[in-house]
Amino acid sequence: MAWVLWQLRQLYLWLTSKKRLPPPDAAGIWGDIFDNIYRMQKRHEKERRRLQSVIRRGQETTAALRDAVVLVDINGSLSWWNQSAEMLLGLQPIDQGHPLVNFIRHPSFIAYFEAADYDKPLDLPSPRNESKQLQYQVNRFGQGERLVVVRDISQIYKLEQTRKDFVANVSHELRTPLTVLRGYVETLAMVPDLKPVMVRAFEQMQQQSDRMNVLINDLLTLSKLETEDTEKNQQQVQLRPMLEIIKSDAQALSDSGQHNISINCDGVLSLRGNEKELHSAFSNLVFNAVKYSAAGTNVKLDISYDSTAVVFSVKDNGDGIDPIHLPRLTERFYRVDNNSRTSSAGGTGLGLAIVKHILLRHDAHLTIASKPGKGSTFSCVFPRDRLQVLQQS
Ligand code: ADP
Fold it and tell me: pLDDT for 4-48, tens place per residue?
């Protein structure tokens, strides 16, 4: 008994010793116990060192990152960040535990952070230096924790800005000379006794300068959509009267109304948005339906809504579109067939790009369903809270 107690004391002293001592000497079963514990200790030590080196490596990697990485706990408070976060956001060690929104105070960031819809990143000027542009992307992990990655996108932003300015300036500068040329072509085309060859030449010049005019106007529209404030001129827009105007314009376009255009819009409905922009987006879709379907066919304009969305759709029984083209249809200048009658129909390939931009500015998106030979349905899907039902049908 005394021997067992003595060995227990040895074990206790060894385990509680602050120094890393080898196991006490003992014979028999106690020797085995000490050796086994010692081996276990060594294994744990090795594992601890391995984990430590993994953590160090992780820290070195995040320190080498040029992007700021910030860990935010379940309460939205700062729990860890890397070196770049100190440079980009000005975080200091004493900020630990404080809410992140105390350091990034921009209202758009606070709304983004609290809305908890992190599908898309958010671009904003830097809180430390207005001339820098930062991109924030929040990712969830663990149980309610969040990882915020912040990138300096000033360079890309500047390039994008230069591109926008260039397109806007070129389109604007081309307008004046084109107006002069169109004026002269029109005047010269009216000169009496022109040779037939000249008449044809002037007709072609007029057609092409008109096309160029439409192109420039579309480019200007697109660059305005890219630069203007989204919230500008947003109001409740009555849908039925707008669709009636678009219908009669489309009928004029379809050569003395050869298409059967119908409107299905029950009740008195209004949609919050920019009237000019909504008119432009909807009319682009309706004019396309008329342009790309044969005379005598039906074009149906339809407004429907449920608890989550409001959908404006345009359905035609026209040529339809091969599925391979669908993903690229809203790209600028993308046309399914550059040489077909669509070219003579005066299209620029910018119409759907304009529609897409307008819808983006209204928190909406475009969906396209089409089958070659069967027709197409283009739908604009808006969030339900933009709709006001002024009178039920
Ligand atoms: P465009 O000025 O050429 O009409 P859009 O951007 O409006 O340019 O449309 C891009 C292309 O999508 C068109 O060239 C056409 O091939 C195709 N498209 C658009 N709407 C329809 C439709 N309703 N039916 C068939 N094809 C369509």
Answer: 899 899 889 888 888 878 888 888 888 899 899 999 999 999 999
> In the structure encoding, which two tokens stand for residue 237, read together?
């827009």
Tokens (6 digits) for 66: 């040029």
Cross-strand bridge partners of residue 199: none
Tell which residue, 161, 268, 167, 261, has the closest CA to residue 215. 167
Q: Is the pLDDT of residue 289 over 90?
A: yes
What is the rounded distance in angstroms from the CA atom of residue 280 to the CA atom of residue 358? 8
Residue 347 alpha carbon to ligand 1 centre in Å: 8
The DSSP code sequence of 300-327 is EEEEEE-SSEEEEEEEE-SS---GGGGG
Cβ–Cβ under 8 Å, residues 70 and 100: yes
Q: Residue 1 gets which letter from DSSP?
A: -
**Tens of pLDDT, residues 172-205:** 999 999 999 999 999 999 999 999 999 999 999 9
Which of 109, 115, 95, 97 minimizes the C-alpha distance to 150?
Answer: 109
> How many CA atoms lie within 13 Å of 338's alpha carbon, on the beta-carbon side?
2
- Could you list the beta-strand ranges (E) of the chain: 68-72, 78-81, 122-125, 133-141, 145-152, 234-238, 260-264, 268-274, 298-305, 309-316, 365-371, 375-383, 387-391
What is the Cα Rg of the chain in Å?
A: 34
Site to probe by mutation for ligand 1, drawn from 292, 315, 340 as the one with most ligand atoms within 8 Å of Cβ, is: 292
Chain-centroid distance, C-alpha 276: 22
Q: What is the mean pLDDT of residues 138-151?
A: 92
Q: Is 376 in the pocket of ligand 1 (CB under 6 A)?
A: yes
Q: Which residue matches tokens 């260039």?
A: 166
Three-state secondary-structure class, residue 230: coil
